[in-house]
Amino acid sequence: MQFTEEVQQTLQHLKAQGKTYTQCVFLLAGEFGYSLPVAHRITEAVWNLDGNQQEIFHIPPGSSVACPEIDTRRHGASIPLSDRHVRVAFEQIAPRIVLLDDFLSDQECDALCASAEGFRASVVMSGNDAATEVDRGIRTSMSATLPSSNIFVQKVQRRTAELLNWPLQQCETLQIQRYLPGDQYKPHYDYFQPGADDFEQIVSRSGQRIGTLIMYLNTPEQGGDTYFWNLGIKIKARKGSALFFSYPDATTRSGTFHGGDMVTAGEKWIATQWLRTPPVPSTAVCDQ
Ligand SMILES: O=C(O)CCC(=O)C(=O)O
Ligand SMILES: [Fe+2]
């Protein structure tokens, strides 16, 4: 995604006038109609990297962190994977959001649902392992872990790793969520919150979360859209489709505040694949 010479010159001019970074971001958003996360990326690009070839990327300029990504530039609307062609239904550059159709066959959706056992109240992964009463109010669906020995789980995880160009060892155990009428998942971020009690321990052992792939295993009768609260984006849950988004900066500036709307009729089943960065050894934590 590119921005124009005019935008670049405007920013350079504002900077020369002594405007602050924040003022520039708001001006870009107000005057040119960019969403705030995009206005941030452009301001960063112009201020820090002298224009960054007038391109904006979903990864913050200057960041060296590797990120799961769907390379849509090399293909048309259909991405050929080893065992399946998936179709790009929608994509956004920053924050990076890609909606895919035909990611799973009906048979795979049904098999994943059938292999979910031992549903329990969902734990909100805020960096704290224990779900508090507050947490339970945020997410009312039930969760189950899918056995990684299951042949369908293995197939789907391999496909995910190929699609996102991300190592399997950095994919969490696949989780299923089941929403009944009245259930919802209030807006949240998926990354672990720096500052939470066990943040250092989690991240030093198994890395920070950097991306999410939500796979829709059925089509709810009513409600259950996934929405990005700050972006004005709503995605309908449709059996077999998948929603990818990433948050390489793991802060509120990632723009990925999202939730699952209340299911008002029928059920909603999803499988969530969270992607992790490599473990980040910390001097503050002594691993047993
Ligand atoms: O149910 C949804 O649509 C959202 C799920 C979600 O945000 C998650 O699993 O992290
Ligand atoms: Fe989430």
UniProtKB/TrEMBL annotation:
Pfam families: 2OG-FeII_Oxy_3. Its cofactor is L-ascorbate. InterPro entries: Oxoglu/Fe-dep_dioxygenase_dom, P4HA-like, Pro_4_hyd_alph, Pro_4_hyd_alph_FE2OG_OXY. Residues 170-277 form the Fe2OG dioxygenase domain. Keywords: Dioxygenase, Iron, Metal-binding, Oxidoreductase, Vitamin C. This is Fe2OG dioxygenase domain-containing protein. Gene3D superfamilies: q2cbj1_9rhob like domain. Signal peptide: none annotated.
